[in-house]
Structures are given as structure tokens and as C-alpha cells.
């Protein structure tokens, strides 16, 4: 198993792809093709970590592995709506 190969990569990536439905190699982004996953709330901490409460009983917790630059960005593709940057 090659952790850098998103098609056959690590278990976490496989599970996330099952929930979201697709992974876009070009943008290196998970794409919610199921349209059944919605974010209910988002919280961040002083260290750059975020906690996303999602529909379906899912929760996504993200913590940075560094202290420089942008860690992640959540937005609705093709939309000019406000988005969350951490």
C-alpha cells in the first residue's frame, strides 16, 4: 500500500473517499458527490485545528502538521459564497 497513491492509498483516504464519493487528483481535493454530507458547524482552536460536525453522525477533526501558511480550505465549488480557511 502506497500512502502517496490516492487510488490505493492509506485507510483514512479510502474511508474519506467512501464518504465523499470522489477524489480529484488535479486539485488534490475530496469531492462530495453524494450530496448527503453537509456541514452543521465548524470550530477552530488557537493551534490551527478544526472540528467539523457533519450530517449523518460524521465528525471531521483536522490538525496541522506545521505552522506556516494555509492548512485547509472548505468551499462550495463553482460558487462565490463565503468559505472557511484555516
Number of strands: 7
Q: Helical proportion?
A: 10-25%
Radius of gyration: 14 Å
Query: Sheet bearing the most strands, described?
Result: 3 strands, antiparallel
User: pLDDT average, as an integer?
Assistant: 77
Q: How are the strands of the largest sheet arranged?
A: 3-4-5
What's the order of the H and E elements? HEEEEEEE
Q: State the distance separating the first and last CA atoms.
A: 30 Å
Derived from helix and strand composition plus strand pairing, the structural class reads mainly beta
| Fraction in beta strands | 25-35%
Count of separate structural domains: 2
Q: Please, how many helices? A: 1
Low-confidence stretches: none
Q: What general form does the structure show?
A: globular
List the helices and strands and how they pair.
Layout: H1 11-20, E1 21-24, E2 29-32, E3 39-44, E4 50-54, E5 59-62, E6 73-74, E7 84-85
Antiparallel strand pairs: 1-2, 3-4, 4-5, 6-7
Question: What is the gist of this entry?
Answer:
The protein has 1 helix and 7 strands, in the order αβββββββ. The protein has about 90 residues and is mainly beta.
What does this molecule look like?
The chain has one helix spanning 11-20, and strands at 21-24, 29-32, 39-44, 50-54, 59-62, 73-74, 84-85. It is mainly beta. It has 2 domains: 1-32, no CATH class; 38-86, no CATH class. The protein has a 3-stranded antiparallel sheet, with no helix packed on it. Strands 1-2 form a two-stranded antiparallel sheet. A two-stranded antiparallel sheet has the order 6-7. The termini are far apart. The model has no long low-confidence stretch (mean pLDDT 77).
Amino acid at each position: 500500500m502506497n500512502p502517496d497513491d490516492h487510488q490505493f492509498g492509506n485507510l483514512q483516504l479510502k474511508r474519506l473517499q467512501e464518504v465523499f464519493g470522489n477524489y480529484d487528483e488535479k486539485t488534490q481535493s475530496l469531492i462530495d458527490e453524494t450530496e448527503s454530507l453537509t456541514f452543521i458547524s465548524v470550530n477552530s482552536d488557537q493551534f490551527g485545528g478544526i472540528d467539523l460536525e457533519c450530517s449523518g453522525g460524521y465528525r471531521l477533526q483536522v490538525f496541522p502538521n506545521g505552522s506556516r501558511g494555509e492548512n485547509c480550505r472548505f468551499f462550495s465549488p463553482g460558487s462565490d459564497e463565503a468559505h472557511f480557511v484555516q
